[in-house]
Amino acid sequence: MKTAMTALVLGLAFSGAQAAEIWVTNEKDDTISVIDIDTLEVTRTIPTGERPRGIIFSHDYSVVYICASDSDSVQVMDPETGRILHDLPSGEDPEQFALHPDNRHLYIANEDDAITTVVDVETRTVVSQISVGIEPEGMAVSPDGRIAITTSETTNMAHWIDTDTQKIFANSLVGSRPRHAEFPKGGTEMWVSSEIGGTVAVFDTATQKQKAKISFEVQGVHDDRVQPVGFEFTEGDTHAFVALGPSNHVAVVNAETYEVEDYILVGRRVWHMAFSPDKSLLFTTNGVSGDVTVIDVAAREAIKSIKVGRFPWGAALRP
Amino acid sequence: MLKHYLAASTLAIAMATALPAAATEIAIGYLRAEQPAPPVLSNLRPDPADLGIAGAQAGLADTRTTGQFLGHDYTLDVVSVPPGGDVLGAARAALGSSRLLLLDAPADTVLAIADLPEAQGALLFNVAAPDPVLRDAECRANVLHTVASTAMRTDALIQVLLAKRWTDIVAVAGAHEADSAFMDALDRSAGKFGLKIGKRKIWAFDADMRRAASTEVPLFTQDLGDYDVLLVADELDDFGEYILYNTWRPRPVAGSVGMTPQTWSPALEQWGAVQLQERFRDTSGRDMQPEDYAAWAALRSIGEAVTRTGFAAPDALRAYILSDEFELDGFKGRPLSYRGWNGQLRQPIPVVHPRALVALAPVEGFLHQVNELDTLGLDAPEVDCTAFGD
């Protein structure tokens, strides 16, 4: 309750009347469920294009971008009204994307086309298309904006893209079906999760060399079912919370030692996640059980599950 | 096994360093022994002409994309021998140009090719013959199997029946050899999981059932009595379709029709499968069939082994493929690997109806001391295969 109060106060401070929210895309309902962080309840459901997956807010939170995969578009929505303002040219089957620190360039993985599309959100034009491996999925841009990463699920690589030239300058082989990428610790490291490989690889950004590989072991679950997908870092990037898919657990990884410290039981087939503004609460999307688990980050405990739409996939914070 | 792999990779490293660095070329062959199609009642769904081959081509495209980032160049040479043609001659020629060869042929042809002097030291992939004996007494060290064995499929089906508690089982089998083989496998699987198939009948009609099914089948199935599920063994898709909805009692049908265990199905969409289905549809203009999947998996296995090791020699690839290191993303929710005791690709078996997945085997609760996937098909202690021993 105390955490919720803090979140509420924070939310008020940021945006006046409205509490902070978690926006969840429901892949098979073509909707977004909006969760109020104060009450931990769904306050509204917003229709989207077909098969919404990746979701991010602009850095000023004035618009929200949604990958409507089967509509072959990235939709731009006004978060106040829930109205679609316009679509961006995204290439076919956009799945995940990352917004450059300049708040202007979206890097979009086009899953069916083996392409990464770079879109200028102001002019609404495609700046560049980069050929990558089969089934591009994870996308990340380094905090300094100089490097973009695309992971390709069938090629099993992380492609390092120079954002000045829009060309690949390195390829790193990783475990099977790489899903998600992040640049923690000020961009000095780059992490990639491999769903079928069952590992998270840690790269040194400067050299693109792998410096660690994290494995997981959930008691009572066969290794094959432990499938890392989405992950996020706690305050100060000291720990990573890693969604482990059909093992129905989230792992807590020490980001200094790369050791797994805890496993938290959540809903079925956990995909992605988002933190509350003060990072005291974590919200995970559970695809198969159709709900969102709320984790108390300090206690490392699941405290509530919230029913949302069918096959919740992406999650994003609106402070 | 790991020791073997290490020895092979050391060899390969020695070879690689002796040669100038260049783009590696990986030549893969696909040999099909065309089979005469037996007559069936329905003329609606003939097999596509590129069955299997289209799967190999899809696997080649997936593998080539990876190769372009690593300097690996893959080629696929397809040879199709008409019924009655000289398959062994074609196999000799194919092995002369590529030491990695996919075989789309019946079991006896697979064995004859595997035993050719030209095939020694080559790596063959059986992508079509489901016969358990190829994974058992007649296993060959140079043959890996990407198509699921009949035993894997029937084990999957029986697991699903058990999970549903449909344990009172009757059966109707066709008169073809493949039908009795499937029926034998069903009996074996039922016994393995503590069930027994009760009353059974042989389908021996020769009337055209498109006109008479609604009147013939109820009578034919009337004396089966009461039961939970009717299994149909009709591996040639001859009469099975006409059993559905025409049985005397309103009961579900499974086996070769109705709810079927498959290596692959166009109905799969989870685990990223929809991406593979769409890629396949885009390039071939039709749905991906189990035969296509088996060929696709063989190409991808070769590609994965070349990608991870950087070698192209068959012995190095075989050693890596059979090692614990190997894992293939087969769009079935778990990593696929090969059984070290008989070279069978270890894989989940979807149990489907034509429009959707019913369950993915291994079904939850069927446990195994090493890998749950090994609850499907022939497990290490029960096979009589020495070719894979160390």
Would you give an account of this structure?
The complex is a heterodimer of chains A (319) and B (390). Chain A is mainly β and 319 residues long. Chain A has a domain of 167 residues: 7 Propeller (Methylamine Dehydrogenase, Chain H), CATH 2.130.10.10. In chain A, 4% of the residues lie in helices and 52% in strands. Chain A has a four-stranded antiparallel β-sheet with strand order 3-2-1-28, with no helix packed on it. In chain A, strands 4-5-6-7 form a four-stranded antiparallel β-sheet, with no helix packed on it. Chain A starts with a helix and ends with a strand. Chain B has 390 residues and is α/β, with parallel strands linked by helices. Chain B has two domains: 230 residues, Rossmann fold; 111 residues, Response regulator (Rossmann fold, 3-Layer(aba) Sandwich), CATH 3.40.50. The N and C termini of chain B lie close together (7 Å). The relative contact order of chain B is 0.17. The N terminus of chain B is likely disordered. At the A-B interface, strand 15 of A face helix 2, helix 8, helix 9 and strand 11 of B. Chain B: InterPro entries: ABC_transptr_sub-bd_PQQ, Peripla_BP_I. Chain B: It comes from Meridianimarinicoccus roseus. Chain B: Keywords: Signal. Chain B: This is Branched-chain amino acid ABC transporter substrate-binding protein. Chain A: It comes from Meridianimarinicoccus roseus.
Question: Could you give a short description of this structure?
Answer:
Chain A is built from one helix and 28 strands. With 319 residues, chain A is mainly β. Chain B folds into two domains: 2-148 and 265-347, 3-Layer(aba) Sandwich (Rossmann fold); 151-261, Rossmann fold.
